[in-house]
Amino acid sequence: xxxxxxxxxxxxxxxxxxxxxxxxxxxxxxxxxxxxxxxxxxxxxxxxxxxxxxxxxxxxxxxxxxxxxxxxxxxxxxxxxxxxxxxxxxxxxxxxxxxxxxxxxxxxxxxxxxxxxxxxxxxxxxxxxxxxxxxxxxxxxxxxxxxxxxxxxxxxxxxxxxxxxxxxxxxxxxxxxxxxxxxxxxxxxxxxxxxxxxxxxxxxxxxxxxxxxxxxxxxxxxxxxxxxxxxxxxxxxxxxxxxxxxxxxxxxxxxxxxxxxxxxxxxxxxxxxxxxxxxxxxxxxxxxxxxxxxxxxxxxxxxxxxxxxxxxxxxxxxxxxxxxxxxxxxxxxxxxxxxxxxxxxxxxxxxxxxxxxxxxxxxxxxxxxxxxxxxxxxxxxxxxxxxxxxxxxxxxxxxxxxxxxxxxxxxxxxxxxxxxxxxxxxxxxxxxxxxxxxxxxxxxxxxxxxxxxxxxxxxxxxxxxxxxxxxxxxxxxxxxxxxxxxxxxxxxxxxxxxxxxxxxxxxxxxxxxxxxxxxxxxxxxxxxxxxxxxxxxxxxxxxxxxxxxxxxxxxxxxxxxxxxxxxxxxxxxxxxxxxxxxxxxxxxxxxxxxxxxxxxxxxxxxxxxxxxxxxxxxxxxxxxxxxxxxxxxxxxxxxxxxxxxxxxxxxxxxxxxxxxxxxxxxxxxxxxxxxxxxxxxxxxxxxxxxxxxxxxxxxxxxxxxxxxxxxxxxxxxxxxxxxxxxxxxxxxxxxxxxxxxxxxxxxxxxxxxxxxxxxxxxxxxxxxxxxxxxxxxxxxxxxxxxxxxxxxxxxxxxxxxxxxxxxxxxxxxxxxxxxxxxxxxxxxxxxxxxxxxxxxxxxxxxxxxxxxxxxxxxxx
Length: 860
Prior knowledge:
Strand order of the largest sheet: 13-23-24-25-21-26-27
Structural class: alpha/beta
């Protein structure tokens, strides 16, 4: 317990798994936690004079229990026996060999093959924030810095499993980013620039960070060093696979704020069992491809050349079915070579995984040959970057048996014929049965005892067993060792000698196999970078094959991308909704045309359930898919590349943060209006509905006006309930009215889901209530009230008021009936601004102010 307490003091915030014999034990509070999470029994024991809680499990079940603890958000310190208990007379030396946390894990049962397991650090600088992401299981190491919005967006996209923050910024982090992340607080001194430079240069064995192109990212460098510091603190020191640090170049990718990522349901949905975009588009066959697909979705490209290169490969594979099937058949059986080579670096790989790595690399040869032979330039580039790693394959093939076990101790990992010494020892150990059979036959003949038996047990090794009926035939030189009810057991000199030989051989075989395997792992480390590059190229190819398959299955077309700022989608469909329709239903496609000169803002009116939101979302998703490099669900699509996508769709209260629906809506809309650019695509759905009708209409009108008058002239789709906004089409030249058409039958409404020019005059809200099964008397009463309200508050009156407010704003600043304003007008008109000094300007302004003040006093 003394030893346990000393080690526990070093890791106070981790759950300590303490190896005792064949068990991992937990004590005290740790035992209470472990028993709840793992569902194991918590007992009490009198250890060291105190009655203490205790819960444990067999050491070979570590892979079953460890993932459960880590997934429950626990940091787990694994404390092993550091010496052989047979070789020490005192208490066995123990120490923490690994600290597994939600963000630092190499165990396959903890990791998800399709997602990265990112450890992240956030650094609060003076003006900017730094961020860094590292996946120890793949070796990916990324950094960036920027505003709170930028970092928030990256956290949403990369979804880290654990975030490191300095203790000083504990509350600030929660205020800014919320409390949904799994965080760990690091000592403040780790966040120092000198220490950061020293840590990173020490790890990469460089003198400066210029080679990585991140030397100007001061805050990003500090965040990156914190991540590496944390790895050394968690006993992870074999990190050759982390050999580069990449900058997340925000300017290369489409900007989507966190609201957009959430609203478009790219990865997650607030609704249970909802299908997201990634569920539909991810047809990848390898774990590397699946992880890259998520990255491509998080970071769509802005560079037209790069996008076109992806489209060319997708087009080539889409048109050549045989080529696509061949590539898929080679990628499918491939293991996760990215994570396997990381295990080589960290020394955590087992013999079976090494064989799997060799078999996976063998499929690179046909892929490389195929890409070289293809006439596609992008595929030829992939071929150039692929390395068949033949020396590595040959070495593993020569050294390891194809049926190598998971655990090296099980034996038979090293192939026959690789080591003469090993083969000789195996011959000795395994020819034993023949030797014993011959001995048995010889002794049976010599003694005349027909029922002789040679066997062994753990107490005294090999023995000869004689039934009591033949006791009198036993030779004198046999030594009696054990008496049973019906038999006697004996040992002989010859048996003892042979046993020593066999046992010695088995021990030496085990040691030699471990030694040879360790040498192989060290030798393999030369190939870390090469295999990582292969993994990247295979992931690329896998994603492009996935896009080609998606286009074939769902009838997608190649989009045309150019430098214009217009958007022309013909018969576009929503990629997710069209796959969720009941059998027999077809998705109603729609055209969307937007540009900055004639049709900048489309005002879409129409009843609930008519499909306004679907049209908005599908427009964003089509642009997003096109700029990821995919084909799109439409008849045709011409897209002037977009640099920012903003959405304000569907309101939900953020009660946990103390914000109402309306407040959330206004926050999100403010974020859009403050970040507009010429290439932005803005989607606004039902803005202003969180407040009273007049408030809502006024806000919606003012927002539309702002978007129209803003120099960026951002392309906008505005879906609204407020038919009054249709009047804007008459006053503002680039606002056009559309509606989602419906067909009114005698007492019900048919939703045609087709976007047509012109505004809509009805809401049909009561019809929708009827369809939902609202009681008949409620429907009847609602219709009566509606008629009364329509009489007393005609929407024409409201529109007139809005129009007059509009005219009021455009009236001349000067009401010329006022002699004082006339005088000020004269003063300003006759000013020569070009010759006016700043001091004179201030004096003139002061003079005008004095005139106004004097006038105010006189009138009051």
